[in-house]
Design goal:
GO terms for molecular function: zinc ion binding. The chain has about 700 residues and is mainly β. It has twelve helices and 54 strands.
C-alpha cells in the first residue's frame, strides 16, 4: 500500500500538465529517435535528450520547450512595442512565418496580436543587442548583434553573399533581408590595394555603381548584389571575395595549383566565358586564366531546366550553339555546361546554369548513376487504388479509382458536354472530358489532374515540389500571383526561404511556351521586370515571365500566359476565344456584359458567330480559380462577423453593397439572415 502511494506520488512528480495538450505529459529522461512521430511539437525538431511526452497521442516536447510555459509572456528586443504571448499553435489559418528567420512553422509561437508579429521559440531565446555606431553609409537602419544564432538564419550574408555562420549582424527593419557576418560588418571603410596602380584608396560601398544596361562584365554576368570596394576614378570594383583572395588555390577539379595575378588586367575567363579584370588566377601549365569563383565550379550538376545531369567543360568543338536558358549564343571556345547523353544536345552558359533560381547549389558526384538520377523524378500519383479497368485495344484505362484527396470512388467520363459550369477540384478550371467525378458529391477531377505525380521537379523552382490539396484554404500562387483553391505543388525544403507554392495551371507550363499571341517561341526568365504585352502592367523584379527567343520586344507575365484560351458567356451558346488583336471599328470597343468601353490594346474574349466581346475580367470573373459555393475564412474579413460564400450569379444578379453595381459572375455573399448581402471581391477591402 505504501509502495503504491509512493509510486503514485513519484509519477505525479514526473508528470506535467502542459497548456498545449489535454493529457498529462510524462517526463522521459532520454529518448533518441529518428522518425517523425517523435518530433517536438514545440520547435519541430527531432527529440533527442530529456523530454515530456504523451505516448498515447504521440505528442512530445523537448524539456526546454515544455518549460517555456513558465514564461508565457516575453518582452523581446526584436519587438519592443508590445509583449509577446506564447501560443501552442498558429494564430492564423495554417502555418505561419517567423519574422526573424523567415521560416514557416506550425509549432509554438511567441505572438503579438496587434502587430501580427511572430517568433519561433528558438529564435525568441536568442541573445541579442543593438550594434552601436554601425556606419550609415553601408546601411541606414540600426542592426542587432547576435553572437550565436544557432543556425536559425539560413540566409546569405548581404556583404559577401556567402552563407551566414558564427556571429552576425541583423536588420529587422528590412524584414530579414539584410544580414552580415561579423567579419563583413567590421571591414575598414577604405583600403589601399595593389590593383589600383595610382594608389587611390578604395571605398567600401553597399552595392556596386550602376553599369550600362548591355554591360557584359563579370559582376553584371553574375548579377553581384553584395558589397564592393570601389575607385570611381580608375573604374575598379572589388567584391569582398576579391578582397580576401589568397595567393594560391588548389582544387580537386584541377590537377595543378592556381596562382593569383595581383595586377589589374582585362581577360576572358576560360571556365565561364565572361570578361573580368580583378581576382584572376592562372594555371601556367595549362595556360588557363579564370575568375576566382570559377575555380570551384562543380563538374556535374542537376538543374530545373533539364532532366539529365549536365557537366562542365572548358572547351568544346567550335560550333554555333544557343544557350537553352537565355537563348543567346554560347562561345564553345570557353567553359559551358552540356549534357553527355548521346542523343541530347543540351548546352547552357555557366552563369545561366549556376543561377540560384535554376540550381540548388548541390553538386553530383563523379561516380553518379544516370539511371538512378532519373529515378528521382519518377514519382507515383495520388490514385491509391484502381477499382475497375477497361481495355481499348492495347490501352488499359482506369474507369473507377480511389483518390487520396476524396473519400468516395471516382468514375471516369470519356465524352459529353458540361453545361453547368462545373469546376475541376484540382486545377479549378472548367471541367472538360475526360474527367473523374463522384456520384455522391459535386467533385470533379480532370484525368490529367487525377494522375499528377506526388513529387515533381519544375523550372519555376529549384527544389523538389510535393502535390498537396489546399482543402478549400485560400492560397496565392507564387508563379502567377492569382488567388486559388484546389491542388497545389509546395516546396517542403526546410532551408528554402521562398515559401513557394504553385497552382496546377502554372505547373502545367514548361520553360518554353508556344502562345497564339506571338509568332515565335517564348522562354522563361526569372527575376525579370518588364511591361507585359497583354495587360501592360510592369511586373515586380523578383517575378517570372516569358520572353521571345528571337529577342522581339515581347513579354508575357505568368498571369496572362495562363489565361484560358476559351471562356463562356451566359448569352452566347458558343465558346468565346481569347483575342489578342483588336482591329474592330472603334464603335465596337465595348464589353457586351458590363457595357463599359474596352481598351483596344487589351486582350479580350470574342465570339465571331454572335459578335460578342467581353473584357477578360468580365468573361472570367474576379475569382475564376476559387471554388464556387465554398466559404472563405471569416478571419479574412475582420470587420464582418460572418463567413462569406463565393457565389456565381448568372441571371438574378444582386447589387454590390458598397459600389451599387450588379454582381455579375463571381461575388461574395453573406447568407446570414441579418445580413443577406453581396459584395464584389474588389469592394470587399472595406471589410478586411
Amino acid at each position: 500500500m505504501d509502495l503504491t502511494v509512493s509510486e503514485s506520488k513519484k509519477r505525479r512528480e514526473m508528470e506535467l500538465q502542459h497548456f498545449s495538450h489535454h493529457h498529462p505529459l510524462l517526463f522521459i529522461q532520454h529518448q533518441s529517435v529518428t522518425d517523425k512521430a517523435a518530433q517536438c511539437f514545440g520547435c519541430e525538431e527531432l527529440i533527442d535528450g530529456p523530454s515530456y511526452g504523451c505516448n498515447d497521442c504521440k505528442y512530445y516536447l523537448h524539456k526546454r520547450c515544455a518549460e517555456l510555459q513558465l514564461t508565457p509572456h516575453l518582452n523581446h528586443p526584436f519587438h519592443p512595442q508590445h509583449l509577446l504571448t506564447l501560443l501552442p499553435k498558429s494564430p492564423y489559418d495554417g502555418r505561419w512565418g517567423c519574422d526573424f528567420c523567415q521560416r514557416s512553422s506550425s509549432g509554438f509561437v511567441y505572438h503579438c496580436d496587434p502587430c501580427n508579429f511572430d517568433l519561433h521559440i528558438n529564435c525568441a531565446l536568442l541573445q541579442s543587442s543593438i550594434a552601436p555606431n554601425f556606419p550609415t553609409s553601408l546601411h541606414q537602419h540600426p542592426l542587432f548583434f547576435i553572437q550565436d544564432h544557432n543556425d536559425e538564419v539560413n540566409r546569405d550574408c548581404s556583404g559577401c553573399l556567402k552563407p551566414l555562420s558564427g556571429p552576425i549582424y541583423y536588420c529587422f527593419d528590412c524584414n530579414g533581408w539584410f544580414h552580415l557576418h561579423k567579419q563583413c560588418a567590421e571591414l575598414p571603410l577604405e583600403i589601399n590595394h595593389p590593383y589600383d596602380r595610382r594608389k587611390h584608396p578604395l571605398t567600401l560601398l553597399p552595392k556596386r555603381p550602376t553599369h550600362l544596361p548591355n554591360c557584359s562584365c563579370y559582376l553584371c554576368k553574375i548579377q553581384w548584389e553584395g558589397f564592393v570596394y570601389s575607385c570611381s576614378f580608375c573604374k575598379i570594383e572589388l567584391t569582398l571575395d576579391d578582397f580576401f583572395s589568397p595567393q594560391t588555390i588548389t582544387n580537386a577539379n584541377h590537377e595543378h595549383p592556381w596562382t593569383l595575378l595581383s595586377r589589374q588586367r582585362s581577360f576572358v575567363c576560360d571556365f565561364c566565358g565572361a570578361t573580368g579584370d580583378c581576382s584572376h588566377y592562372i594555371c601556367a601549365i595549362c595556360d588557363l586564366l579564370v575568375h576566382k569563383n570559377c575555380i570551384s565550379l562543380p563538374r556535374n550538376i542537376l538543374i530545373t531546366r533539364h532532366h539529365h545531369v549536365i557537366s562542365h567543360s572548358y572547351s568544346l568543338p567550335l560550333q554555333d550553339e544557343l544557350c537553352r536558358i537565355c537563348y543567346e549564343e554560347v562561345d564553345t571556345r570557353y567553359g559551358s555546361y552540356h549534357c553527355n547523353a548521346s542523343d541530347c544536345d543540351y548546352i547552357v552558359h555557366v552563369h545561366c546554369a549556376t543561377d540560384k533560381a535554376v540550381w540548388d547549389g548541390k553538386s553530383i558526384p563523379e561516380d553518379y548513376d544516370e539511371r538512378s538520377m532519373e529515378a528521382l523524378d519518377e514519382s507515383i500519383n495520388w490514385i491509391t487504388d484502381v477499382v475497375e479497368e477497361m481495355s481499348f485495344g492495347e490501352i488499359t484505362v482506369a474507369v473507377e479509382i480511389k483518390h487520396a484527396y476524396h473519400d468516395h470512388n471516382l468514375r471516369l467520363t470519356f465524352s459529353g458536354e458540361m453545361n453547368d459550369g462545373g469546376q475541376c477540384d484540382g486545377c479549378m478550371r472548367t471541367i472538360s472530358t475526360p474527367f473523374y467525378s463522384c456520384e455522391q458529391c459535386k467533385f470533379f477531377l480532370h484525368k490529367e489532374c487525377a494522375e499528377l505525380p506526388r513529387n515533381k521537379r519544375h523550372p519555376f523552382h529549384k527544389h523538389l515540389l510535393t502535390l498537396t490539396n489546399s482543402n478549400a484554404v485560400l492560397f496565392v500562387c507564387s508563379a502567377c500571383q492569382s488567388l486559388h483553391h484546389g491542388f497545389n505543388y509546395k516546396c517542403n525544403d526546410g532551408n528554402c526561404m521562398s515559401f513557394f507554392e504553385c497552382d496546377i495551371r502554372c505547373i502545367l507550363l514548361s520553360d518554353t511556351l508556344e502562345h497564339p499571341s506571338h509568332e515565335h517561341s517564348l522562354f522563361l526568365v526569372h527575376n525579370f521586370s518588364a511591361n507585359c504585352n497583354a495587360c501592360r502592367r510592369k511586373s515586380d523584379p523578383w517575378n517570372m515571365a516569358y520572353r521571345c527567343t528571337k529577342r522581339c520586344d515581347f513579354t508575357l507575365d505568368l498571369e496572362c500566359a495562363t489565361l484560358p484560351l476559351t471562356a463562356w458567356y451566359k448569352h452566347d451558346r458558343h465558346p468565346l476565344t481569347l483575342t489578342c488583336i483588336d482591329d474592330f471599328d472603334p464603335s465596337q470597343h465595348y464589353c457586351d456584359l458590363c457595357e463599359y468601353e474596352r481598351d483596344p490594346n487589351d486582350w479580350f474574349y470574342y465570339c465571331a458567330e454572335c459578335d460578342n466581346s467581353l473584357h477578360s475580367r468580365c468573361a472570367l470573373g474576379d475569382l475564376p480559380f476559387l471554388k464556387i459555393r465554398s466559404n472563405l475564412d471569416k478571419r479574412l474579413f475582420h470587420k464582418h462577423p460572418h463567413p462569406f460564400t463565393i457565389m456565381k450569379n448568372i441571371w438574378d444578379c444582386p447589387p454590390c453593397k458598397f459600389c451599387g453595381e450588379v454582381c455579375n459572375g463571381q461575388a461574395l455573399q453573406c447568407k446570414e439572415s441579418e445580413c443577406n448581402f453581396s459584395v464584389h471581391w474588389n469592394c470587399s477591402y472595406h471589410l478586411r
